[in-house]
Amino acid sequence: MADQSSPVARRLQTVKNIIIVLSGKGGVGKSSVSTQLALNLHASSPTAKVGILDVDLTGPSIPRMLGLDGHGVHQSSSGWVPVYADGPEARLACMSVGFLLKNKGDSVVWRGPKKNGMIRQFLSDVRWGELDYLVIDTPPGTSDEHLSLLEHMAPVHSRLSAVIVTTPQAVALMDAMKCLSFTRAVNLPILGLIENMSGYVCPCCGEISNVFSTGGGEEMARREELRFLGSLPVDTELVTLLDAAEPEKEGSVREGILQQYSSTSSAKLFKKIVERMVEQLG
Ligand SMILES: Nc1ncnc2c1ncn2[C@@H]1O[C@H](COP(=O)(O)OP(=O)(O)OP(=O)(O)O)[C@@H](O)[C@H]1O
Ligand code: SF4
């Protein structure tokens, strides 16, 4: 029986749904999907409260994608205060190892036990408050970090679910299959599969070119009896937004990121993905 009085269980008792974002392979767009998932869940209702936790310890990219580079987290007597991407509204909270590094370019060179300790601290010490959704961005593959994460969250297992991100190429799909067998081995319910970088939409004429082929994710979902949540094409507007320069002033929030994202074509497609996910979550 998982310990319901553990610091992680106590801290996460005010979080209704925890969504873990996984990918078998690096570079398929897992962090950008996690970021878009958090932004769309935030936009799904005027009262939705969302958190995003970046446990990709060696390659944290969520602060940059949310325009929050340069922020630091404050330690209060009741834990770490997350950084809010929507400023004083405080409905989109973010925590990442990126906020703990002295310089943005510093690398995290930690052995397993230190990474495990950091993950435990992220889960037990961040003052999320009431959250409808906590999105967790993980490193690529299925590593010790994933096992640590699930071990620490055993007391809240009934609120966990996962989303698998893949691209359409055969190598990425093979790695997504490994990811799927991992989730089955640890008994983690899967909300569905997202195919990212599925074709390229020309910004001039709207013609779709299937640069990396397309449809492999949907086919895998059908074969494995998973829900196919949707496909997202390569969107140059999205890269410009997520990889944009830092805010002019260190510690400030990049102006209008939430509004700018909502007008991209990716946001419109992602809205449907989120509707399907929310329906699954009930
Ligand atoms: N649909 C898309 N259209 C255009 N660019 C995309 C799309 N998805 C992701 N990208 C871009 O591709 C790059 C890699 O994406 P991202 O960092 O999300 O991948 P990742 O799977 O999290 O990588 P890793 O886990 O190896 O760090 C980023 O620059 C991101 O902005
Ligand atoms: S897709 Fe159409 S507009 Fe885009 S480069 Fe090709 S021909 Fe030109």
From TrEMBL:
Keywords: 4Fe-4S, ATP-binding, Cytoplasm, Iron, Iron-sulfur, Metal-binding, Nucleotide-binding. Signal peptide: none annotated. GO terms for biological process: iron-sulfur cluster assembly. Pfam families: ParA. CDD domains: Mrp_NBP35. GO terms for cellular component: cytosol. SUPFAM superfamilies: P-loop containing nucleoside triphosphate hydrolases. It is found in: Cytoplasm. [4Fe-4S] cluster binds at C202, C205. ATP binds at G24, K25, G26, G27, V28, G29, K30, S31. GO terms for molecular function: 4 iron, 4 sulfur cluster binding; ATP binding; ATP-dependent FeS chaperone activity; metal ion binding. It comes from the Eukaryota. Belongs to the Mrp/NBP35 ATP-binding proteins family. NUBP2/CFD1 subfamily. Component of the cytosolic iron-sulfur (Fe/S) protein assembly (CIA) machinery. Required for maturation of extramitochondrial Fe-S proteins. The NBP35-CFD1 heterotetramer forms a Fe-S scaffold complex, mediating the de novo assembly of an Fe-S cluster and its transfer to target apoproteins. This is Cytosolic Fe-S cluster assembly factor CFD1.
